[in-house]
Amino acid sequence: MFPSFYDGSTFAAHTFFGAHPEPEGVLFRVFAPNANAVALIGDFNGWQPTPMEREENPGVWYLWFAGAHEGQRYKYRIDEFGGRTRDRADPYGFGSELRPATCSIVAETRRFPFTDGDWMAHRAADFYNRPLNIYEVHVGSWKKPDGEGWYNYREIADDLIRYVRNNGFTHIELLPLSEHPSDESWGYQVTGFFCPTARYGTAEDLQFFVNECHQNGIGVLFDFVPVHFAPDDYALYEFDGTHLYEYPFDDVKHSEWGSCNFNFSRPEVRSFLQSAACYWLDTYHFDGLRMDAIRNAIYWQGSEGRGENHDGIAFLRGLNRGLKQRFPSALLIAEDSSSYPKVTAPTEYDGLGFDFKWDLGWMHDVLEFFQISPDQRGAHYGKLCWPMNYFYNDLFLLPLSHDEVVHGKATILQRMAGGYEQKFPQARTLYTLMFTQPGKKLNFMGNEFGQLREWDEKRGQDWDLLRYPLHDGFREWFATLGRLYAVHPALYADEYHPDCFRWVENGAPEPCVYAYERGMGRDRLLIVLNLSGLRHEAFRLAFDRPAELRLALDSDWQRYGGGAREASCTVRTQAAPHKGSPYSFTVALAPFGSAIYEIREVETE
Fold first, then answer.
1. 274: left (phi over 0), alpha (psi -120 to 50) or beta
2. CA nearest neighbour of 485 among 218, 216, 169
3. Cis peptide leading into 100, omega within 30 of 0?
4. Dihedral pair phi/psi, residue 552, rounded to 5°
5. Closest C-alpha among 557, 559, 594 to residue 473
6. Where are the beta strands (DSSP E) in 317-359?
7. pLDDT (tens digit, 9 = 90+) per residue, 131-166?
8. Which of 326, 397, 488, 562 could form a disulfide with 356 if both were Cys (CB 3.0 to 4.6 A apart)?
């Protein structure tokens, strides 16, 4: 066994541990250093225990079982330190039974004939200057078959890929697919860190799905849970009778969700998690990892008041450094609600090494603003300006995720102030803001067509809503914004440089109008937002130079659910000083309307 497992530096523990099928049988290895004895039980021995032997490697038990083969179920029967005997699933198992059954299954994960070599070789390493528009999906509830159960990865592939392409997304992010016992955890309380859940198919089914996405130009991100695990006693909890994976101290053993916190001070735990992260990127060709609950790795119990978890911080740095060495073009994204510095700085500069961090402050401020009654928004005008004050502190991604459409929060559309019809123009302008502000984009399924019902993992999305013109028009607006975002470098190239964003109007609280310019090169856009319920027929905006502005999109056009006919419109700045600028121009704005103009520089008259 490689010493790196014991010093916490390996990313390949899964190539040694687990059940590895070979032509004449299967080789089993498990790490249980404090067990008194370990036996193997399974389909191949009639569930009668076959004793495993200790290896020279400390704590490792192994058994070569001739005649065992792929597809058979198994567990380890562990005589624990302390006297109990319990049957355990394999921590490094590559396959599992469908819940509520809990056996591991001998699985071969290296056989699938990937045909995405060109995608893997050429996927962008310079993703900071590329569009990134993520569709966050829970596989089990995007669409549901009639009756009970779920669609298989292969069954859902064509529909989901076509939908993603048609609606302007660049990537799919799948809520956790590691095996988990409770549907209600959405995959965030994991028992099988190397095992794709049996709910949606086999390892080869998932590999097929990723391969098909790549063949169609769609990246796929994996939601990875490196901070905590499910407390079920057939899995990692007190695995050999001791706290092998979790902390032994009562005040930090369990998380706020009732799960067990990983003990980052143990090198074998770090090797386990690093290997799991590597496994999903390597074996399944995922294009990156979104890592959950990073705040809880940085601070004890996620609380800044309890102090920094230095082992957790060191683990994150080592994990990200090692992944970048092995997969330079893989995206590493932190779901982190803390203000800890340098989350997206390189590890060689004392950063945590993530590529992007969710901007949860932006999410909170924006949604809170849109819930305010329009006649009171002037008093809270600065909420929409504030996120740009800290935007350049980290490399941010703007999320409207699954967490924002559950637990009584209401869906994104429902959060808009006012009645049913008044919500749509506001939501269209919310998404104008999201797609035109700096920062990569993420939306949970259902956001894009105005889902009215909170997400429920037991039910499919309410696709029948698309029969209604307001919802279908809203989906078309969302898709149009996604396409505009993808073709205008002004909206993504160099967006983490302060010169790519300039406020044109951020001091008009009474009319509640905002305007800003995007872009640094030849491609430049002007975005104007009206967050009041009043129509502005000729709202004057200051500009710093002579220019011609061509209307590219208007959220009030009829095909998107508005009341205006689509028409070309070009506005030219005038040498009329306004608010300290030498030029100005006027625009018409519908109530809650937004407009995007392409800017063409002109010579001074």
1. alpha
2. 169
3. yes
4. -95, -40
5. 559
6. 331-334, 356-358
7. 999 999 999 999 999 877 899 999 999 999 999 999
8. 397
Structure token pair of residue 543: 């500009």
DSSP 359: -
Options 212, 335, 404, 505, the catalytic residue: 335
Do the beta carbons of residue 585 and residue 543 sit within 8 Å? yes
CB 583 within 8 A of CB 511: no
Q: CB–CB of 462/456 below 8 Å?
A: no
391: its two tokens: 């935007």
Residue 308 appears among annotated catalytic residues: no
Whether 405 and 455 have beta carbons less than 8 Å apart is answered as yes
Q: How far is CA 107 from CA 89, 103, 203, in A?
A: 14, 12, 8
* Alpha-carbon distances of 599 from 64, 436, 524, 577, rounded to whole Å: 70, 14, 5, 19
Contact between 429 and 562 (Cβ < 8 Å): no
User: What 3-state DSSP class applies to 470?
Assistant: helix
Cβ neighbours, 10 Å, residue 19: 27
Give me 551's structure tokens: 């209307």
* 604, pLDDT greater than 70: no
Q: Known catalytic residue: 566?
A: no
221-229: average pLDDT = 98
| pLDDT class of 126 with cuts at 50, 70, 90 | confident
- What is the pLDDT, as a whole number, of residue 1? 53
Judged against a pLDDT cut of 80, whether residue 63 lies above it is answered with yes
What's the CA gap between 500 and 441, in Å, rounded? 17
> Is the Cα torsion angle 111, 112, 117, 122 positive or negative in sign?
negative
Instruction: Report the chain's terminal Cα–Cα distance, integer Å.
Output: 77
CB distance 39 to 85 below 8 Å:
no
Element (H, E) at 102: none
C-alpha torsion sign, points 41, 43, 44, 45: positive
CA distances from 265 to 7, 31, 277, 297 (A): 11, 17, 18, 11
Tell me the backbone φ, ψ of residue 599, rounded to 5 degrees: -100, 130
**Three-state secondary structure of 262-276:** ECCCCHHHHHHHHHH
* Beta strands 547-554 and 570-572, pairing class: antiparallel
Q: Of residues 292, 336, 365, 517, which has the active-site annotation? A: 292
Under DSSP, the state recorded for 13 is G
